[in-house]
């Protein structure tokens, strides 16, 4: 298109900064008035009551940065940013953390997030479903590592069904916003 790479980089940076400033206006956790409807929609997905969100991290591939390149190498040996997303049953992102290099584990991103700090002191009216990378907390439910009983198997199946639809948010984001010079998507 006849535009120098430096100019493109500056424009991308300016647009990214502008979007980041608007993030809190568009990405919001359900309010007290919305919680009942969110719980109902999640229950219809997988029969787990009291669910107000699902959480997971996804790696968005990037080109190797010039500074601290090693920090961005994820467990698959690719350069990425590890993005934490919380979603609702309608695939809306209700919370996100976009600041950690690919080498950082999901649990650390979670522990250092504003969401974690807020919910540790002000417990939410419900639970967030997470995979086994996350800690089990009064407000975070993870699957049983090994389901030994029929009830544990039923719980793990319900947990998986409830998480599966909103978890597609991660896949969508990872495939839509990957670095164009790298393929395939995650």
TrEMBL record:
Compartments where located: Cytoplasm; Nucleus
Superkingdom: Eukaryota
Pfam (any one): DDE_Tnp_4
Protein's UniProt keywords contain Transmembrane: no
Essential cofactor(s): a divalent metal cation
InterPro entries, alphabetized: HARBI1-like, HARBI1_animal, HARBI1_dom
Gene Ontology MF term list: hydrolase activity; metal ion binding; nuclease activity
Keyword Metal-binding in record: yes
Domain DDE Tnp4 stretches: 55-166
Keyword vocabulary terms for this entry: Cytoplasm, Hydrolase, Metal-binding, Nuclease, Nucleus
A single Gene Ontology CC term: nucleus
Its job: Transposase-derived protein that may have nuclease activity. Does not have transposase activity.
Family in the record: Belongs to the HARBI1 family.
Name the UniProt record assigns to this protein: Putative nuclease HARBI1
Organism expressing this protein natively: Pogonophryne albipinna
Top-level taxonomy: Eukaryota, Metazoa, Chordata, Craniata, Vertebrata
